[in-house]
Write a structure and sequence with these properties.
Blueprint (H helix, E strand, L loop, with lengths): L22 E5 L3 H12 L3 E6 L4 H9 L3 E4 L12 E4 L4 H14 L2 E4 L12 E5 L2 E5 L6 H14 L4 H17 L9 H6 L2 H6 L3 H29 L10
Parallel strand pairs: 1-2, 1-4, 2-3, 4-5
Antiparallel strand pairs: 6-7
Helix pairs in contact: 1-2, 5-8
Length: about 240
């Protein structure tokens, strides 16, 4: 018996999968399978591509990135051994079998061009360093997903990826020093001149701005802690007030 079709009218829950080193299966050897495998390779997944034959794009991809190619048909039940499965064979019977097996095993599965056989949708993606912008239409129109992706990507400021990395370093430093990331008004920092500094290459000045904001936040946090301790009748060094 086939697994029930996916209700594509249900709202999608957006989530980012961490696939580095995790086993993913692509069933199919054509151009679509090549594109899906390439997208997984960007995420450093451990990829196996299964198909009776592989097109030149798949073979070229295998020369550039770690990829296990298996020249054979899909074997029933093998989807259960993977974390994520993509079916892109163009054969309704094979894709249905892959979907059924993945659903039975509780494995996330995407069937290219068939939302009713998907438990996960693959959005149109724009990347800039640690930033990932993803747009999905629930399978209604992949072309529109790509169109919206491009529109949004054009609005992402230059240097946004580098800025995100700088803020990540700042958060890590703050936590390492025992501070709370909640004490920093990150939105005000981003609404200020910082993005323009990074976009124009003023990296040292940007680092100084971030450092000054962190120091001010830590000072405010220390003062609040001292005031709370004083209110509780505890002895507080004058320098902390």
């Amino acid at each position: 018996m086939n697994a029930p079709a996916t209700d594509v009218s249900a709202p999608l829950f957006p989530v980012g999968l961490v696939l580095r080193g995790r086993k993913c299966l692509v069933v199919g050897g054509g151009e679509v399978a090549a594109r899906k495998a390439a997208a997984l390779a960007v995420c450093e997944a451990t990829i196996t591509v299964v198909a009776p034959e592989h097109c030149s794009q798949v073979l070229e991809l295998a020369r550039r990135v770690p990829l296990e190619l298996q020249l054979r048909p899909y074997r029933r039940g093998e989807a259960a051994r993977y974390r994520l499965v993509v079916a892109a064979t163009g054969d309704a019977g094979v894709d249905q079998a892959v979907f059924d097996d993945a659903e039975a095993a509780g494995v996330w599965v995407n069937c290219a061009d068939n939302p009713a056989r998907c438990s996960v949708m693959l959005p149109a993606v724009h990347r800039d360093g640690p930033i990932t912008v993803a747009v999905a239409t629930g399978g209604a129109s992949p072309a529109m997903s790509r169109w919206l992706r491009d529109k949004i990507a054009a609005c992402v400021p230059r240097g946004a990826g580098q800025l995100a990395s700088m803020l990540s370093d700042a958060r890590a430093k703050l936590i390492e020093q025992g501070g709370s990331t909640e004490t920093v008004d990150w939105r005000a920092l981003l609404d200020g001149s910082l993005p323009d500094m990074v976009a124009s290459g003023q990296i040292e000045e940007a680092h100084r701005t971030i450092s000054e904001v962190l120091q001010a936040a830590q000072a405010a946090q220390a003062a609040q802690a001292a005031q709370a301790a004083q209110a509780a009748g505890l002895e507080v060094p004058p320098a902390a007030l």
